[in-house]
Amino acid sequence: MNITKLVVKNITRRRGRFVFTLLGITIGIASFVAFLALGGGLKEEVRREAAALGANLVVTPKGSCAYEQVSILTGEQLPSTITMEEVGRVAAIQGLTAVPVLTEKTAIRNRPVGVAGVLPDAMKPFKGWEVRSGEYFANNDERVVVVGAAAAESFGLKPGDEVTIRGTRLPVKGVLKETGSKDDTTLFLALSVTQELFKAPDKASFVAVKVDDLSRTDDYIMKIKETVNAGVVSDKQMLKSVLGIIGTVNVTLQLIAAISVLAAAFGIVNTMMTATYERRREIGILQAIGARRREIFAIFLMESGFYGLLGGICGVAGGLAASVLVGPMVNQNAFLAFVKGNDPAAVLDPKLMVGSVAFSVAVALVAGLYPAWRAARLTPVEAISHE
What we know:
- The protein is α+β, with helices and mostly antiparallel strands and about 375 residues long.
- The chain has 14 helices and twelve strands.
- Pfam families: FtsX, MacB_PCD.
């Protein structure tokens, strides 16, 4: 008796039931995989943005919460309450390099884009920017725009073009090399020009700070708090806070996906119980020709496991495809604006794929235990006499 052929024949004899049961486990696993892949992509983006910020400490408006910390990483607009006088006091602390940033929003061809007001002379070495085409700011007050690589490509901007910001036409002087961070999607103006255009005189959204001695980070935080009435967070604290928020969201989404998998498991139980009832006579014949209870148990359990294996493979493929396709849509949400789509190479994690298929098989096997036990418990007389 070839058990494998028998298993395949049994589960495909009712094609409609087979397809719908398979779809249940496929959709559940696909949801689970998609949320895992997107969650992993989000965490990598957060770490990359935190590294690209180039700051050991960030001075934020007093009372800022975790959402403001996310906004710093995403380039979203922040309350502009830090004064340049406070920036000067922070910069005067020995052992620190402080660079103020004013974040705003504008639109080009009715599409939103971030604007950052910076001190050009200080920001270029702070971030390690390089110019891809055109030129960089000549001084800290020049009325020009320097564009991130992705923004230049998205809006078709090049040196010599003009953009209108708050009713004022400004020439594009240069395009930065790609950094792999939110800087690529941002328009950069001199801080004084941004303050004028957005009517935020003498204001900044946050201050990025580098320290000379990382071992004294806590001391620097205390000095800044004593010097100005503002919040101070280290890059590690900010990263932990933002990852904590994303982790909570991921757990919630994964629980929703787990419910889908659980519902699919009950679908397998129902299918296998129905098969046990319909194939009583077949079970009796198998017993009559010498099949033992453990072999019958194994046949039904293998059928259930086959659903899990095939559903897991299809679910993994569908989930990874969904994560790649849905990734670019996630950046429509301001909270997750830094996500520019998942890199397929990063999403195709072998551990994720193998683990998801194994999880699918395990769920299916657990779902098939009771039906397989019921089938194995039938006596030859009960099975053969069944009509």
